[in-house]
Amino acid sequence: MEAWLDSPAGRYLLAWEQAQLDAAVADVFGFHALQLGWAPLQGLRANRMPQRWLALPHGHGAAQLVCDFDDLPFESNSLDLLVLPHTLESAADPHHRLREAYRVLRPEGRLMVLGLNPASLWGLRQRLGGRFLPQSGEFIAYWRLRDWLKLLGLELAEARFGCWRPPLQREAWLARWQAMDRLGATWWPVFGAAYFVHAIKRVHGMRLVGLARPSGARRRAPSVAVSSKASRLRLPAND
What CATH number should be reported for the domain holding residue 14? Predict the structure, then answer.
């Protein structure tokens, strides 16, 4: 996948997704943020939380945490922000992986998901055997993901589509179709090649009045883990 992201189409997709996350995470506050997968995408770089991790399923120079995405080494209700860039598409059971994400999020925690849209020109070319995109899993339709979020109790805060240019791999050809991004956003927004979804974990009967640090000295949260077999990380209490 990383080799494909270095292609003209891959850089086009990555630039759009980076812009969405930079804008979305900048004003999300808390203490603990986690990105699951996709090292080339710096999903948390615009966020200011004191603890930010990039987790990968295998050893990698950029990884700060190596773990099983279906069994996260965090206690329930412990993360303020979780970014899933195409993380569900590579899962054998994407619904289970989404439930695991829900488990580790705090009440009012933010979940941000990036996915490839099967209802797009890119998805159509892939289904017809064009092999335009790497075979990295099942593309999950936005409508299907929205239903999963609702069933889990995650409230949809916003959804955006992008990348309307045709599935082309030459820089010059992609540049010629630049106007499609403007036209697509106006006339056929839901047919963009990629989507960005921002959801909030709502817990009924709970009211949060603010984030407060403990009166005593705070323990420093661990920033590195090397195995998902270790016990779940105990993060500092913030309330």
Answer: 3.40.50.150
